Amino acid sequence: MREFARHIFFVPLALCGTLVGARAQSARLPAGTVPIETVTASYVRTPIADTPASVTVITAAQLRRRGVTTLAQALEAVPGLNVVQSGGPGAQTSVFIDGTNSEDVLVLRDGVPVNDPSVANGAFNFGNSGIGDIARIVVVRGPMSSLYGSGAIGGVINLISKRGHGAPHVDYDLAGGFPGQGEGSVTLSGRSGRFDYAITGSLIEQAGFDATARRLAVYAAHRDPFRYKLGAVNFGYTPVAGTRISLIVRARQTGSQYPDLGYPIFDDPYENSFDSNVFFRFGVKSHLFDNRLITELDIAHIQDDRRYLTLLDPADPNQFAGDSGYRGDRTVIQWNNVIRLPDFGPMTDPTLVAGIETTHDTAVENYNASFGGYPYLQSLAASQSTTAGHFGAQATIARRLSVQGAVRADSVSGYGTVVTERGGLVLAVPAIDTRLKASAGSGFLAPSLYDLHGIDSYGYHGNPNLHPEHSVGYRFGFETVLPAFGMPEAVTLRMSYFHQDISNLFEYTSLPDGTSTEENVARARIHGIEAGIGFAPASWLSGQIDYTRTIARDAATGTALLRRPENAGSLTLSIRPIPALSIEPAIRYVGRFSDFLYANSGYPITSGNPSGVGLAQPGTIVNLAVNYRISRALTLFAIGRNLTNSAFEPVNGLQIPGQNFLFGLRGTIGG
Fold first, then answer.
1. b/e map 557-572, b = 16+ CB within 10 Å
2. Residues near 252 by Cβ (< 8 Å), separated by ≥ 6?
3. Which residues contact 21 (CB under 8 A, 6 or more apart)?
4. What would the 3-class secondary structure string for 439-456 be?
5. What biological-process GO terms show up in the record (predicted)?
6. Which pTM value belongs to this model?
């Protein structure tokens, strides 16, 4: 703990240092700032405009208007994110934030880390989640391990559950479309006396598309179906004013099919995946002493069960068959406290944050398969515990300079303590409606249980001596509001530069004795620019243009990291020709990126290029949602996805779903 004590000076120094030269001059938010607050970026409810981190908040209302039905779709247009889906819904879907690895993205559900410990690299699969019970999604880009620990090198994505408010009412969405799809979601929510509740049921069924790229000779037009079922409850009880006892229980099941990305790719109709997840969280949160102290205790358990079943197809040149099972269990106990101090001199809203957390992970894997008649086995049965403490502080100085600092120590069974820090500031320049932002921090990724203890039948063995991956990163930029079109706040500009150095990266290594393992040998250097323009030239028209340029390289060789497009962008519009009608087009562009390339024959391209790596083709995807509100109880909508029938391959050899349409109705009854 002496190391933790040494690092903790980072927080008060970050605060005190900013006092020098600060002028007691009042400032206002930029005229165009949307008054949205976030807790995820600092544990303290703070306006996004005063948050040094790069934050995106997506509400359930926005998702409905845009025609979004899955979590992967919800994240597609978020700047700095690259969503890589290996086929249609249900397929393995990875998210890369600011060019970091997919396992460097920590996913939270109501503040609880939910990455499956039985996944070999610890990455979250975004392909299995709907959004029926989600009230909002918060994306924080940049290293956040000082708040959330392992896995937050690239950033965090917090999925916040719906909660009951007001008189009892029912929100519903029902839709059907072609080819062969239907879905529905119903939420009963409200408040009665001291009780509040939100009960959600969702179902999605799709006949699907063939995820095998149409250009390949092995394409056989086999549909890859998807089925998703969700039941979720969020109960709350307020025994006294300011204290809420909550219980969240969520159960999800998915089933899907996918092609064989082998040698060669085979359009296999017999590869099936089944995935179930149960999430439980019990919490008590109290606002005490006139909100001077907010204390919250949460106990959570997450269970993931996965099965992959492949029946032998005589036509498969790989002769692949398998039946494999995985189970991951995570238990988390969190105690977080927010202490609001009195104003002092030029310092207003000084706030301290302190908390402790303990996590216990267990993973079991039994992988049983055969390739060309040769058996291949993997197995794992291991557990790991982590105990952590964190401390943070933030304040506003001279009513124009917001500062934040945080430090966290994680003690992980097997390799000791890891300390991470983060600091940032926001300077308001009211004369030009601008905010200048800067932040810096460190992050780490603990080895997965498979990295440490996994074995296979071909000589692989985990390395219990692995050290965590470590990163240091920073970001700086500005946000400003400009007059245009005769309106004082018609345009919002945002731009930032980000940089990260990651060391001790895990890499598969062959050993002299013929066996293999993971070792800390690789390094990465990532930098880029994120820019956005929001515009509202008229009351009936608004939009957003986002662009991200990412340079992600192996620090030793200079080669590009896989599936990180150097250029990516999106355009979203909201057109309201009459109050009842909204038209929401969205265009997404993904530039060229490095990947393992497959020829049209279905075989990897290795001639003159033994690694098989090259530049994959870019893609443009066009979506459209139209909503017509008849009354509060009834809105008609139509959704068209991939209107141009793009055959873009986010993973080379596997294409996105083809052109599809969904028609339905939604509304609110009661309340």
1. eeebbbbbbbebbbbb
2. 128, 129, 130, 228, 229, 230, 275, 276, 277, 278
3. none
4. EEEEEEECCCHHHHHCEE
5. cobalamin transport; monoatomic ion transport
6. 0.93
Task: Return the SS3 of 10.
Answer: helix
**Please, what sign has the CA dihedral across residues 129, 133, 138, 144?**
negative
What are residue 200's phi and psi, to 5 degrees? -125, 140
Q: How far apart are CA 42 and CA 52, in angstroms?
A: 10
**DSSP state at residue 112:** E
Q: Which amino acid is at 607?
A: S
Q: What are phi and psi of 606, to 5 degrees?
A: -120, -5
**Three-class DSSP category at 228:** strand
Q: How far is CA 407 from the centre of its chain?
A: 22
Secondary structure of residue 262 in the 3-state scheme: coil
SS3 429: strand
Q: DSSP 3-state helix, strand, coil percentages of the chain (rounded to 5)?
A: 5, 60, 35
Amino acid identity of residue 163, one-letter, is R
For the chain, counts of helices (H) and of strands (E): 6, 34
Asked whether the beta carbons of 637 and 664 are under 8 A apart, the reply is yes
Cα–Cα distances in angstroms (integers) from residue 609 to residues 215, 264, 613, 614, 619, in the given order? 21, 17, 7, 9, 24
Largest interatomic CA distance in the chain: 79
- Give pLDDT tens digits for 334-370: 999 999 999 999 999 999 999 999 999 999 999 999 9
pLDDT recorded at residue 35: 52
Cα–Cα nearest to 222, from 265, 275, 175, 176: 265
Structural domains of the chain sorted by starting position, each given as residue range(s) with its CATH number in brackets: 2-670 (2.40.170.20)
Question: For the purposes of burial, counting CB atoms within 10 Å of the CB of 346, is it exposed (0-12), middle (13-18) or buried (19 or more)?
Answer: middle
Q: What is the DSSP letter of 122?
A: -
Q: Buried b vs exposed e over 298-334: b needs ≥16 C-beta within 10 Å?
A: bebebbbbbebebeebeebbbbbbbebbbbbbbbbeb
Roughly how many angstroms between the first and final C-alpha of the chain, as a whole number? 53
Structure confidence by residue, pLDDT tens digits, 15-31: 343 333 333 333 333 33
Radius of gyration of the chain (CA): 25
